[in-house]
Amino acid sequence: MRKTVFLLASLFVMACGIQSVKAQIGSASASASANATIITPIAIAQVADLNFGNIVAGIGAGNVTVGTDGIRTSIGDVILPTATPGTVNAAEFTVTGLANATYAITLPTSIDISTTGGEIMTVTDFTSNPDEAGKLAADGKQTLLVGATLNVGANQPAGAYTGEFSVIVNYN
Amino acid sequence: MRKLLFLISLLAVMACATQKMNAQVSATAETTAKIVSGLQITKEADLNFGSMFSPKSGGGTVTVDVNNQRTATGVQLATVSGEAITAAQFKVTGSPNATFTITFPYSFSVTNTDGTGSSMLVDNFTYNNITSPSTLDGSGNLTIKVGATLHVYNYQALGVYKNTSDLKITVAYN
User: Fold this and answer.
1) Do B41 and A28 touch (CB under 8 A)?
2) Full 3-state SS string of chain A
3) Among the CATH numbers 3.40.50, 3.20.20, 2.60.40, 1.20.58, which is that of A45-171?
4) Interface test with A, best of B36, B80, B142 (most A CBs within 10 A)
5) Is the pTM of this model over 0.80?
6) ipTM for the complex shown
7) I need a surface site. Which of A2, A93, B61, B101 has the fewest CB within 10 A?
């Protein structure tokens, strides 16, 4: 008799268990995450100008190139005076924006630099480091260096030649 | 002859037995069917508002509709390569043509993952013509898409914002 009572009790417990399982089967939930990213506009600020230094023009034409490492080389009929090189350096910019963001760099294809008297030289073959695509560091900054090639004409008149060029950066 | 009679009676007993078994099977079949076609919901896509610039002259809103299209008022959107704009998407499965109720999310906040506690409100949920109660199709499926509006405040702190688990859809048989 004791045995029977125990059996009935256990059956009752089983029935309750099944009942609660059925209740769960009737409904279900799922969650999605919602994501958004607030970013800061990308900005570029000039730190240093591009300086080709002192150049002695020859009878023929020549080129002077300043690399992104600030080292200058020449081709053709130009002389780079070693004793009085003047200031030679690549242009330097600081790009700021969203941490770890990649961005595209657009360099000019050609600009003119001139003296106050109207004499002109052309600057071409702009190069940059980083190259076409930059990536901001974890602090949202990156240094961008720009070099170029100065086209010195035959018997290029002496003088101080200056000009401006723009570098455009855009988030990818 | 006696042998044949015995065989017939044996068959009769077997038939009875089979009959009885059938009766038992069909009696429990209803319960079994419910378990097999239990209502389920799975997440297929998260709600992604993408990237936007921090407003500097008053806040605004960014809305993603159920077609994954993004619009904004007062906020300049940014297009970042490799970043998909998506409405949330859920798939409900269960018994074909079954009617069920849907509990939709209320407004909730996404908070800056940098831990500073900066947050934005998400509300104005939109759905792909789905109301509650709803009905599963002939294959026992239904896709629920959820669009929403994000409120971006003036000088909103930079960073990645995420919710916890508040974008929740609950479905239940009627």
Assistant:
1) yes
2) CHHHHHHHHHHHHHHHHHHHHHHHHCEEEEEECEEEEEECCCEEEEEECCEECCCEEEEEEEEEEECCCCCEEEEEEEECCCCCCCCEECEEEEEECCCCCEEEEECCCEEEEECCCCCEEEEEEEEEECCCEEECCCCCEEEEEEEEEEEECCCCCCCCCECCCCCEEEEC
3) 2.60.40
4) B80
5) no
6) 0.72
7) A2
